[in-house]
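Chain A, query sequence.
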Amino acid sequence: MGAVRSGRLKLFIDTNLLLDVLAERKPFYNSAARVWSLCETGVCQGIVSAISFNNVFYIVRRARNTDVARRALILMRGVFASVAPDQQILNQAIDSDIPDFEDAIQFFSAQRAGADYLLTRNASDFPKTGLPILAPDEFLMLLDLADDDNA
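Chain A, predicted structure.
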Protein backbone atom coordinates (compact mmCIF):
# COMPACT_ATOMS: atom_id res chain seq x y z
CA MET A 1 0.00 0.00 0.00
CA GLY A 2 2.96 2.32 0.58
CA ALA A 3 3.33 5.36 2.75
CA VAL A 4 0.58 7.92 3.20
CA ARG A 5 0.37 10.68 0.57
CA SER A 6 1.22 14.19 1.59
CA GLY A 7 -1.50 16.76 2.31
CA ARG A 8 -4.46 16.70 4.66
CA LEU A 9 -5.91 13.21 4.72
CA LYS A 10 -9.61 12.48 5.04
CA LEU A 11 -10.09 9.75 7.64
CA PHE A 12 -13.42 8.05 8.03
CA ILE A 13 -13.65 6.87 11.62
CA ASP A 14 -15.74 3.81 12.50
CA THR A 15 -17.93 3.99 15.60
CA ASN A 16 -15.83 1.46 17.47
CA LEU A 17 -12.86 3.86 17.49
CA LEU A 18 -15.00 6.69 18.83
CA LEU A 19 -16.15 4.45 21.66
CA ASP A 20 -12.57 3.32 22.32
CA VAL A 21 -11.69 6.94 23.07
CA LEU A 22 -14.85 8.02 24.84
CA ALA A 23 -14.93 4.94 27.09
CA GLU A 24 -11.12 4.69 27.34
CA ARG A 25 -11.36 1.03 26.30
CA LYS A 26 -8.09 -0.78 26.84
CA PRO A 27 -6.01 -1.89 24.98
CA PHE A 28 -7.47 0.13 22.10
CA TYR A 29 -7.54 3.57 23.68
CA ASN A 30 -4.00 4.81 22.88
CA SER A 31 -4.05 4.33 19.11
CA ALA A 32 -7.67 5.50 18.80
CA ALA A 33 -6.85 8.59 20.88
CA ARG A 34 -3.87 9.38 18.62
CA VAL A 35 -6.13 9.22 15.56
CA TRP A 36 -8.76 11.38 17.32
CA SER A 37 -6.01 13.90 18.18
CA LEU A 38 -4.86 14.05 14.53
CA CYS A 39 -8.43 14.99 13.60
CA GLU A 40 -8.91 17.38 16.51
CA THR A 41 -5.74 19.32 15.69
CA GLY A 42 -6.53 19.50 11.97
CA VAL A 43 -3.63 17.32 10.83
CA CYS A 44 -6.25 15.06 9.26
CA GLN A 45 -9.92 15.66 8.52
CA GLY A 46 -12.06 13.34 10.62
CA ILE A 47 -15.34 12.13 9.17
CA VAL A 48 -18.01 9.89 10.69
CA SER A 49 -21.39 8.62 9.63
CA ALA A 50 -24.29 10.45 11.24
CA ILE A 51 -25.39 7.05 12.58
CA SER A 52 -22.31 7.06 14.81
CA PHE A 53 -23.92 9.82 16.85
CA ASN A 54 -26.99 7.63 17.52
CA ASN A 55 -24.87 4.61 18.33
CA VAL A 56 -22.53 6.48 20.67
CA PHE A 57 -25.41 8.17 22.46
CA TYR A 58 -27.23 4.87 22.97
CA ILE A 59 -24.18 2.94 24.19
CA VAL A 60 -22.77 5.69 26.45
CA ARG A 61 -26.18 6.47 27.93
CA ARG A 62 -26.71 2.81 28.83
CA ALA A 63 -23.19 2.42 30.22
CA ARG A 64 -23.12 5.75 32.10
CA ASN A 65 -25.99 8.26 31.86
CA THR A 66 -27.65 10.82 29.61
CA ASP A 67 -25.42 13.73 30.66
CA VAL A 68 -22.24 11.81 29.85
CA ALA A 69 -23.75 10.69 26.55
CA ARG A 70 -24.61 14.29 25.58
CA ARG A 71 -21.07 15.45 26.44
CA ALA A 72 -19.73 12.68 24.20
CA LEU A 73 -21.85 13.96 21.31
CA ILE A 74 -20.63 17.52 21.90
CA LEU A 75 -17.02 16.31 21.78
CA MET A 76 -17.68 14.40 18.56
CA ARG A 77 -19.51 17.32 16.95
CA GLY A 78 -16.54 19.57 17.63
CA VAL A 79 -14.06 17.26 15.91
CA PHE A 80 -15.75 15.26 13.17
CA ALA A 81 -17.71 16.13 10.06
CA SER A 82 -20.63 13.80 9.44
CA VAL A 83 -22.13 12.12 6.42
CA ALA A 84 -25.90 11.64 6.49
CA PRO A 85 -27.16 8.26 5.32
CA ASP A 86 -29.36 9.40 2.43
CA GLN A 87 -31.40 7.17 0.14
CA GLN A 88 -28.44 6.35 -2.10
CA ILE A 89 -26.25 5.25 0.82
CA LEU A 90 -29.11 3.21 2.28
CA ASN A 91 -29.78 1.54 -1.08
CA GLN A 92 -26.08 0.75 -1.54
CA ALA A 93 -25.94 -0.71 1.97
CA ILE A 94 -29.10 -2.78 1.51
CA ASP A 95 -27.99 -4.09 -1.89
CA SER A 96 -24.38 -4.79 -0.91
CA ASP A 97 -22.80 -8.09 0.05
CA ILE A 98 -21.54 -6.60 3.32
CA PRO A 99 -23.16 -8.83 5.95
CA ASP A 100 -23.53 -6.20 8.69
CA PHE A 101 -25.90 -3.38 7.72
CA GLU A 102 -24.21 -0.81 9.98
CA ASP A 103 -20.81 -1.63 8.48
CA ALA A 104 -22.31 -1.25 5.01
CA ILE A 105 -23.63 2.22 5.89
CA GLN A 106 -20.19 3.14 7.27
CA PHE A 107 -18.44 1.88 4.13
CA PHE A 108 -20.66 3.71 1.65
CA SER A 109 -20.61 6.86 3.80
CA ALA A 110 -16.81 6.76 3.70
CA GLN A 111 -16.91 6.45 -0.07
CA ARG A 112 -19.39 9.34 -0.34
CA ALA A 113 -17.11 11.51 1.80
CA GLY A 114 -14.14 10.78 -0.46
CA ALA A 115 -12.21 9.37 2.49
CA ASP A 116 -8.61 8.37 1.91
CA TYR A 117 -8.89 5.67 4.60
CA LEU A 118 -11.58 4.00 6.64
CA LEU A 119 -10.24 3.30 10.12
CA THR A 120 -11.76 0.50 12.16
CA ARG A 121 -10.75 -2.35 14.42
CA ASN A 122 -12.87 -4.69 12.31
CA ALA A 123 -11.26 -4.43 8.87
CA SER A 124 -12.29 -8.00 8.01
CA ASP A 125 -15.96 -6.89 8.14
CA PHE A 126 -15.49 -4.59 5.13
CA PRO A 127 -14.84 -5.19 1.39
CA LYS A 128 -11.24 -5.75 0.38
CA THR A 129 -11.38 -3.55 -2.72
CA GLY A 130 -11.48 0.17 -3.33
CA LEU A 131 -11.16 2.20 -0.17
CA PRO A 132 -8.17 1.25 2.05
CA ILE A 133 -9.44 -0.07 5.38
CA LEU A 134 -6.95 -0.06 8.23
CA ALA A 135 -6.77 -0.52 11.96
CA PRO A 136 -5.63 2.61 13.80
CA ASP A 137 -2.21 1.08 14.53
CA GLU A 138 -1.70 0.27 10.85
CA PHE A 139 -2.61 3.80 9.82
CA LEU A 140 -0.34 5.33 12.47
CA MET A 141 2.56 3.19 11.23
CA LEU A 142 1.93 4.42 7.67
CA LEU A 143 1.80 7.98 8.92
CA ASP A 144 5.09 7.48 10.78
CA LEU A 145 6.62 6.08 7.58
CA ALA A 146 5.45 9.13 5.65
CA ASP A 147 6.96 11.40 8.31
CA ASP A 148 10.27 9.50 8.06
CA ASP A 149 10.23 9.88 4.27
CA ASN A 150 9.73 13.64 4.58
CA ALA A 151 12.47 14.10 7.18
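The mean pLDDT is 92. The two ends are 20 Å apart (CA to CA).
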